[in-house]
């Protein structure tokens, strides 16, 4: 099992050569993107490379490895668009890139030390740039961590950063060997509720974040009604601030969830498979609910939980989310009348519990059931989330 991590290191002395290289890289990305879009469907990376490589090398003048990186990256982007389109979350569209990001291969395009990074530039070959390192990042420059393909990124404040990606191999964990499970229900009133096999639980409140985002929503409405250029600039800054807020919150919550799992010797964390959930549930929401539901970063939180769990040697498993909020975790009776806001009361057996905790227990049950399905079948089923209720 491979664990990866990305570390942001500020480039202290960016120059024209670096800017020019990123501009040429972007030109190559947009040329390649246009080829795929006009083709009308995705193109495999190797086939796309053969189509665009001569132009990238001869007409734009890009280096050999960069001319190989670009078609792989563009092919991956369009593949993601097609996958999202299948669940109603995107549509076929031309992707246009801006000169704010450039992917580089280790040794071929860059080498790095604790204090500097050497990059292949367009006009002057390899150039060394000083980087601002941090104490927390220094361990990642030593074994067992390995350097992977990384990026130069221009942040919105105008500064350039090297997003160093590192990886290490961790011992493989098998679902069949798992003994303790934890279900995590993500939501809005509570950002997350976790429940383990032995019924230990923890709530991660989201009331303050919800209130702060309502403030942003009201400010956004006032600015949109003005429609001036200055109002639009403030809207952009507000959107960035809100996005950074949610990212920071999700990092903190995911870290606390994984810490709780480690403290309770959890082998597997169960999460709901939320792919396409927005499209399926939007028509059931009142207009006032749609903003919070559609803009809440559920998927990002799950991704943070997954990679932090992997670094802790914990498996993550996604289960079918159907009826987790309507099913009684004691008797398995399903009814939409079982839940009333934050309160769950089973119409069949009378069992009462916090609704989000009930959901977390159902997720834990389904994750644990999947482990026994593996044990009985002796193989891994790729369709288990579709068959479970």
UniProtKB/TrEMBL annotation:
Q: Any idea which UniProt keywords this protein has?
A: DNA recombination, DNA-binding, Transposition
Q: Where is the Cas12f1-like TNB domain?
A: 298-363
- Write out the transmembrane intervals: none
Q: Name one GO molecular function term.
A: DNA binding
The UniProt entry's sequence similarity note says: In the N-terminal section; belongs to the transposase 2 family. In the C-terminal section; belongs to the transposase 35 family.
Which PANTHER family does this entry report, sorted A to Z?
A: RNA-GUIDED DNA ENDONUCLEASE RV2885C-RELATED, TRANSPOSASE
Give the UniProt record's GO annotations in the biological process aspect: DNA recombination; transposition
Q: Which domain of life is it from?
A: Archaea
Q: Does the keyword DNA-binding apply?
A: yes
Protein name, per record:
Mobile element protein
NCBIfam families in the record:
guided_TnpB (NF040570), IS200/IS605 family accessory protein TnpB-like domain (TIGR01766)
Residue span, Probable transposase IS891/IS1136/IS1341 domain: 173-277
